Amino acid sequence: MTLLVDDVDGVVERAVAAGARVTMPVQDMFWGGRYGKIVDPFGHEWGINQQVKEQSHPMQPTNAKISSPASMYSSLISTLSRSQARQLSLTGHYTF
């Protein structure tokens, strides 16, 4: 699940103080957001996003470091666990 918030750094900081674990540090993303991922004490995964600047659709690909569908797939696979990547490569989809 992804939450859209006004202060991503503050939300992640408070979540960590309450027992969450950071799985992807908050960082600026090519789509104009600041985004990070956490796992709460119960094992639920959360994406936390703050939209910092709006971009028109034509601008996004020029800001992305992903140049083709193949490189996008490779980028996705590198963020998944081994079992998640195997499920995605075998079935073509992953159920969250």
CATH hierarchy class name of the largest domain: Alpha Beta
Strand order across the biggest sheet? 1-4-3-2
Q: What is the CATH-assigned architecture of the largest domain? A: Roll
Instruction: Count every helix, treating DSSP H or I runs of 4 or more residues as helices.
Output: 4
* Low-pLDDT residue intervals, each spanning 5 or more residues: none
Query: Any idea what the radius of gyration is?
Result: 15 Å
Give the termini separation. Answer: 9 Å
The residue fraction in helices comes out at: 25-40%
Supply the helix-strand structural class.
Answer: alpha+beta
- Number of individual domains: 2
Strands, total number: 4
The CATH homologous superfamily name of the largest domain equals: 2,3-Dihydroxybiphenyl 1,2-Dioxygenase, domain 1
Commentary on this structure:
This protein folds into two domains: 63 residues, 2,3-Dihydroxybiphenyl 1,2-Dioxygenase, domain 1 (Roll), CATH 3.10.180; 31 residues, no CATH class. Helices cover 38% and strands 26% of the residues. The chain is built from four helices and four strands; from the N terminus they run βαβββααα. It is flat. The protein starts with a strand and ends in a 5-residue tail after the last helix.
What secondary-structure arrangement, pairings included, does this model have?
Blueprint: E1 2-4, H1 8-17, E2 21-28, E3 33-39, E4 45-51, H2 59-63, H3 69-79, H4 82-91
Parallel strand pairs: 1-4
Antiparallel strand pairs: 2-3, 3-4
